[in-house]
Write the structure tokens for this entry.
Amino acid sequence: VLEEFTGKELEYTEYEQLLPFLKVDKKGFFVLPHPLNYEDNETEGIGAYAFADGIGLEVMYAPNGTDEGQKMYEGWLELLANGHKIYACAGSDSHRDLNNQALTSIYAKVLDNHTGCTTDDAKKACSSTECNKGNMIETLAEGNFVAGSVGIKMSVGNTLMGGTGVFANQRVVVDVDKIHASAYDASHKYRLDVFDEQGMVCFKYLTFTKDSEGNMLGDDIAFNADADCKLYRVVITDVTTGKRIAIGNPIWNSNQ
């Protein structure tokens, strides 16, 4: 994409020029990785590089629980407090094969468009983009997009995690779904925390149970939304280790 846009590698300070091309023309998504690398060079800190709403910021960094990850998380909270709509992402920075050290969990629809596959086995094995066209990028804007190893479905009324909607006369519903095997230990305690812009609203200690397919599924929580708050977001913590294992993206109030 960079070569198509400019024919050369961009400096970090030039990325803002790329965003409209990436988001509109390519229908893509921009993530700023390990932002502390850039904070060291700017007196403005992370905010100097969170130059547009709608981008992703790496707030969970492998190995999880490092000081770097804590500082990036705090930087993201500062951006949210200043009114920015920035998405939390996770990344391992491995530059090699995929691993499970810092996962981003996304719920995305996949269109069953296997025009060239004639059997069920062929459909399952197919990886062609012409057959399996998902809407992953579209769901980043509003579709239960979590930095971490737990799938979380959250809504305020009809507005999903990552979206903006009306809070008045709506219910906040959080459904803790599947936890990745790499993050689960039966001997550990886990807690779901719900925050608004002022701080913690409520919490619940989680119980994970195994379904018929062997997936470990969590609990849910629901309450009436405050029409005057600016956002809701959730965090899941492994209480035994003190580490955050999932950081949900906010739902923003359209009337604030």
In short: The radius of gyration is 19 Å. The helical segments are 2-5, 15-25, 36-39, 67-81, 120-125, 136-141.
